Amino acid sequence: MSTIYTGPVFEMAKNQFNSVADYLGIAEGHRDRLLYPKRAITISCPIHMDSGETVVFQGYRVQHHLTLGPTKGGTRFAPNVDIGEVSALAIWMSWKCALAGLPYGGAKGGVTVDTHSLSKRELESLSRRYMQEMIPFVGPHIDVMAPDMGTNEQVMAWFMDTYSMYQGRTVNEIVTGKPVSSGGTEGRREATGLGVAHLVARAMERLQMKPREATAIIQGFGNVGSYAALELAQQGVKIIGVSDHTACYFDRKGFDVDALVAYASRHGSLKGFSSEALFDPNQLLVQPCDILIPAAVERVIDADVATRLNCRILAEAANGPTTPEADAVLEHRRNEIFVIPDILCNSGGVIVSYFEWVQDLQQLFWKREEVITRLKGLLDDAFHRVMARVERDEVAHRVAAMAIGVDKVAQAKATRGLFP
Fold first, then answer.
1. Is CATH 3.40.50.2300 what the domain over 37-176 is classified as, yes or no?
2. Blockwise average pLDDT, block size 10, the chain, 420 residues
3. Is 14 labelled a binding residue?
4. Which residues of this protein are catalytic (predicted)?
5. Where exactly are the structural domains of the chain?
6. Is the pTM of this model over 0.90?
7. 120 is in an annotated binding site
8. 353 a known binding residue?
9. E-assigned strands of 79-149?
10. Equal CATH topology for 37-176 and 189-346
11. What gap in Å lies between CA 74 and CA 201, rounded to an integer?
């Protein structure tokens, strides 16, 4: 069929889905309804720049399905955002929410922009204009936004305020990932990284690995990578390699993670942290370690990299870091490398976003300890269900995780039928 959904990231999501659909025995005639998004919105966002000129930025929002409840997903401000990438991320979010047991379909949004080129006033103008253009298509029971690459708590506060001004009342529940002072929840900022570390700990238990004897490499040192590093270091794991888009460091003796996080927070990146430990970023992923955490962007592990991986646990903190070709390699290395697939590994963020949405709807808020306890409970439940399916059917971890999510959505669509 002819479609607007193209590009390498979308093709990757499509190939993964078809592999799982083959495993589940989903008929060809029922696949397109499960795969293709319900709604895709493309908008123009004109804003006044500080220079006095008017610049138009392209924005997107894709809502994959509303079968289980409203859609849910982040909003990405990045130079390479396009409709194919956004659609793939929305599809992955659907399987992630279903796997975690959340009453959501997947969504994703974004604006094609380099935020480093914007002043704070320009960023606020772009954020508000994006939400203004989306108001006819979103709502607390239709589509709930969250932060992603290039956005943060402040951007979510601007989104929420803009939507609220048009409604004539405060609507906290239109976005998640807000500041606690504006209806956010305690524990949301660190949820994804903490969840990654928690699942790594569960994998180490299964493999009978001792955290204090383990080493880790983390590609990507933003919100997710930095909190994962902090939590793993607290467990006793030695962090021997880190990188972001500005710098890459590797040292077998390990790094002071608190110092790394403090430096990145103060300077906005890792650039300049060390001259002695500088390392080739193209070689970081294949260095010997016990735990490898890609926490940056999609498609960084291809077949060649997968062949050369030298880790025991691959914890996919990023969305879609491993290509289908790499999965074929990892299938042959299943006894060597324990994969925690992305839709499980990084699901802590959307789980706590769900908690935030529930608290906003009820206007009844929980303490951090309750948030984290509930988070770990849902992560453990999803992890054990994935491993039970792996052992029952002898399939790859990604196939098992996606199968649980796809099967839940497929059953819900079959039960509800097709209207009209």
1. no
2. 84 95 95 96 97 97 97 95 94 97 97 95 98 97 95 96 97 97 94 97 97 96 94 96 94 96 93 93 95 92 96 96 94 95 96 97 96 97 98 96 97 92
3. no
4. 108 (proton donor)
5. 37-176, 189-346
6. yes
7. no
8. yes
9. 105-112, 143-147
10. yes
11. 26
